[in-house]
Amino acid sequence: MTADHQRYDVVIVGGGVNGTGIAMDAAGRGLKVLLCEMNDLASATSSSSSKLIHGGLRYLEHYEFRLVQKALAERESLLRNSPHIMWPMRFRLPHRSHLRPAWMIRAGLFLYDHLAKREILPGSKSIRFDGSGPLKPDITRGFEYSDGWVDDARLVVLTAKKAQQSGATILTRTKCVDAVRGRDEWQITLRDTDTNADQMISAKCIVNASGPWVSSLFGESLSMPAPKMIRMVKGSHIVVPRLNQEEEAYILQNEDDRIVFVIPYEDNFSLIGTTDVEYEGNPKDAKISPEETTYLLKIVNSHFKRQLQPSDVVWSYSGVRPLMDGEEENAQKASRDYTFEVSEEKDKAPLVSVFGGKITTYRKLAEAATDKVCHFFKNTQGHWTKTAVLPGGDFDNQINLAASLNQAYPWLPEKLVSRYVRTYGTTSRDILNNCASVDDLGKHFVGTLYEREVEHLVRNEWAMTTEDILWRRTKQGLYASDIDVAALDSYLADKEAA
């Protein structure tokens, strides 16, 4: 992969939510931007979250009021800008009096409702369970509040797409292997991880947004000591057949003071997570342990009538969260906030490094990081991303968009309409253009995945492998057999060879 130009204002290392957010913001302010990602976009931490846009109710117990307020204020901006991949979700919190008294929960929810302005999301309330629902009959009381859902991997891809539309160059499967710091600019060696071909570029500023690799990049590519270390914490999730048919999610308290979410997922499943486990080693190798699976199942089984076994787990994933390393004794108390380190030695090209962060505050983080970058440039434009709609998000609500697609393409199956709306929004029409029947969608691979969509993903969204397509772009991997995966593999190989 070659860049269109060899000289840039800013080179961003890392294609997760923070890196793509900074690329989008900086490009929109008039800077010449290149982003390089050594794997696929969102291939690590940013596709391994709990898929929530939330303030972090439990962070209130650790007195992180500023972080919670910042995240709560961001929820509604994000929901407005991306109504296809984000939507409001109600959460039910069963009350367990021996864990937290009702007054404490009510006080926490009051703060949660009022720390930031709400216009879209309704407030919290007390509720009663009558035994007819999915919970055990001894659970009779609880609370309900609002947060938001997000398709995290698609958030990253669409943010990268917006950055590209604003003029940024996005290079996936491209690793920053060396960066030599000069007086006015960096001389940077980028390596195509598929072909091992190198290219040299230069940049006036580097942004290190490599997530769990942020500290190691200093020694490996930047030839300098890391200014601080991050704390790597593994969070694991499991996916099981749907536990409750209502649209609400559940937030379950546990004896160790942690909480676990049970979230409706991809129509037929429930997503359960997360764990907090200290981690060492390559973040790419993170996998769920049997102990983590047992831990999550035990908490769910203590609340729900239906009892789950390890054999009920249809998929699991693990990600390493790069948290700011403090003096906290355990992982769950480590801050989810973020900070920057700016290296601007005299007569040396600047370096901005991002430590920490959470997906809900990615836009604010990107804005603050871009402010620091813009300090080194003249005549940059001002803040613009708070109301920036991501590609495909230019519609009022999902129901109306689905109706519009049904009218334009009456032959389109209901499940396909539903998934296209929440995956592509108005960009669905780019896939469906000139199609008059299901046959026009081409080869059927699995679930609701057809050739026409695969071509769109390869051509427009940097997808190259079956994993990119089945898991990060569409989640159709949940329905795919080994034969389905092999068929898609073969199709992609033939396309590349052609």
UniProtKB/TrEMBL annotation:
InterPro entries membership: DAO_C, DAO_C_sf, FAD-dep_OxRdtase, FAD/NAD-bd_sf, G3P_DH_FAD-dep
A Gene Ontology molecular function term of the record: glycerol-3-phosphate dehydrogenase (quinone) activity
Catalytic activity: a quinone + sn-glycerol 3-phosphate = dihydroxyacetone phosphate + a quinol
Domain of life: Bacteria
Statement: the UniProt record of this protein carries the keyword Flavoprotein: yes
Start and end residues of each Alpha-glycerophosphate oxidase C-terminal domain: 385-489
Assigned keywords, A-Z: FAD, Flavoprotein, Oxidoreductase
Enzyme class, broadest EC rank: oxidoreductase
A GO BP entry: glycerol-3-phosphate catabolic process
Listed NCBIfam families: PRK12266.1 (NF008899), PRK13369.1 (NF009906)
Protein name listed in UniProt: Glycerol-3-phosphate dehydrogenase
Biological classification of the source: Bacteria, Pseudomonadati, Pseudomonadota, Gammaproteobacteria, Pseudomonadales
